[in-house]
């Protein structure tokens, strides 16, 4: 019996999120179904966190214990042979028995994609938010993104995973990149609140459309002042990766960075 870490990719379009729910098609349920056919008998796999309905992933991390006597490549191939077409195991490795993909993570990364186009673009809109009219103040996006970096009370942008939990989070990187008719928002942080990234994107877009002042956005970040309700669509968001400390010193340094 050993513990295995798997990096998953999935198209979230036809899933009601990652986390298992009674009577719903979820990523976790599909992966657990595949694992059971390989002899796995635990109650639940471990994951780095849940994703909302419609959100995609190229770097979700799960872990499970399994009595597997073949190669890691064989395990990856066996999983992919049993998973539906919209889920794939990209990488498999054996890890220590106390590894937990959520509690051992020191960084999570997301990408949000926006298309600025007047007419529909069916080939791209599955994975992007089509925005029209165009941004009136695109330069304000970078100012808003830079303000997100650091440790803040992000209660204006989301709710904690457990009732009464901390809303303090540390953002390492937040930036926009323009690529033709697309705007890409990349953000890395130690952890994220429920709906936090989609709320960040929506609020920044309102700043870029001159529907929300940069001053009001800054107050939401720096003073946790409530914002008007709004969420960027789920289908533009991708969980791109989860990072773990390579050694104890890096883990200690990460802990100090949060103080």
From TrEMBL:
NCBIfam families: hisT_truA. One of its GO terms (biological process) is tRNA pseudouridine synthesis. This is tRNA pseudouridine synthase A. Belongs to the tRNA pseudouridine synthase TruA family. InterPro entries: PsdUridine_synth_cat_dom_sf, PsdUridine_synth_TruA, PsdUridine_synth_TruA_a/b_dom, PsdUridine_synth_TruA_C, TruA/RsuA/RluB/E/F_N. Its EC number is 5.4.99.12. The keyword Phosphoprotein does not apply. It catalyses: uridine(38/39/40) in tRNA = pseudouridine(38/39/40) in tRNA. Formation of pseudouridine at positions 38, 39 and 40 in the anticodon stem and loop of transfer RNAs. Residues 9-104, 144-244 form the Pseudouridine synthase I TruA alpha/beta domain. It comes from Anaerolinea thermophila (strain DSM 14523 / JCM 11388 / NBRC 100420 / UNI-1). Keywords: Isomerase, tRNA processing. GO terms for molecular function: RNA binding; tRNA pseudouridine(38-40) synthase activity. The active site is at residue 52. It comes from the Bacteria. Substrate binds at residue 110.
């Amino acid at each position: 019996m050993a513990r295995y870490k798997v990096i998953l990719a999935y198209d979230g379009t036809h899933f009601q999120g990652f986390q298992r729910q009674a009577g719903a098609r979820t990523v976790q349920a599909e992966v657990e179904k595949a694992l059971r056919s390989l002899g796995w008998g635990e109650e639940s796999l471990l994951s780095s966190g849940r994703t909302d309905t419609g959100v995609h992933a190229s770097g979700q991390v799960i872990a499970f214990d399994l009595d597997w006597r073949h190669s890691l490549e064989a395990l990856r191939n066996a999983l992919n042979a049993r998973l539906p077409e919209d889920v794939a195991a990209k990488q498999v490795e054996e890890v220590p028995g106390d590894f937990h993909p959520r509690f051992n993570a020191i960084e999570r990364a997301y990408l949000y994609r926006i298309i600025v186009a007047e007419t529909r673009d069916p080939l791209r809109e599955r994975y992007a938010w089509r925005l029209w009219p165009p941004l009136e103040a695109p330069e304000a996006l970078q100012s808003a993104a830079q303000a997100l970096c650091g440790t803040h009370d992000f209660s204006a942008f989301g709710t904690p995973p457990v009732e009464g939990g901390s809303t303090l989070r540390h953002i390492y990187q937040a930036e926009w990149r323009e690529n033709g008719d697309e705007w890409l928002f990349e953000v890395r942080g130690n952890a994220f609140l429920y709906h936090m990234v989609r709320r960040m994107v929506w609020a920044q877009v309102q700043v870029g459309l001159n529907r929300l002042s940069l001053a009001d956005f800054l107050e939401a970040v720096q003073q946790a002042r409530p914002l008007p309700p709004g969420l960027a669509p789920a289908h533009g968001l991708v969980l791109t990766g989860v990072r773990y400390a390579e050694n104890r010193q890096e883990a200690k340094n990460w802990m100090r960075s949060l103080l």
